[in-house]
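Pilot study result, target chain (226 residues):
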Amino acid sequence: AGVAGGDGTANSGVKLMISVGFGDTATGGFAEALVYGADNGAQISSNSWGYTSPGVYGQAELDAIDYYNTKNGIVVFAAGNDNSESDFYPGFYDGVIAVAAVDVSGQRAGFSNYGDWIEIASQGVNVHSTMTSNSYGLASGTSMACPHVAGVLALGWSADPSLSKTDLLECMYSTAADIDPINGGYAGKLGAGMTDAEPFMQCVANGAPSTSPTVSKAPTTAAPSP
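Predicted structure:
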């Protein structure tokens, strides 16, 4: 909602279906939530969760992701906060858009997972958000970066609902800011770069991307620990 929240008037922003998989007494329902969303018209699924050990996954979740994709939806997942290149699922799965976290300058967050399985990066450091204490505050993690990507994609489809899934994603990738120059040792491991909504929307509207920027200045602040 922070990215695609509309202009403040009724029904101008993204419509949300919320599923809480981590309750006070039980955890679960992840696969069911994906299927429910797909069956009830959700076009983009934003998932700020993942398994905490590499190589671990639930087949039911992977099957649900595949099902969501058959409905022409897009499944976005946080890459994980283990500072690792290992195969952390479901972000590692081919059927999802894996999102790494960077700070506002485009520098990789020290906690963010990385690797050739990452599709894109977005801001996940000191993000202003709602808190469980009925207030607002700052939070960091790939779980904060993931909904930024989902929101940008929602903006794109709101501008052109007829655009194909393939073309929508190509616009996002082709207009992402090149952050390899300021991420020594992680070149090619942060996906297409850092999401940039303005040139992305130009691409959606015009059918061709504007020139994507290259981030070349050294960051002025270090990414904090999660």
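One observation from the pilot: The two ends are 23 Å apart (CA to CA). A full batch analysis is planned for the follow-on phase.
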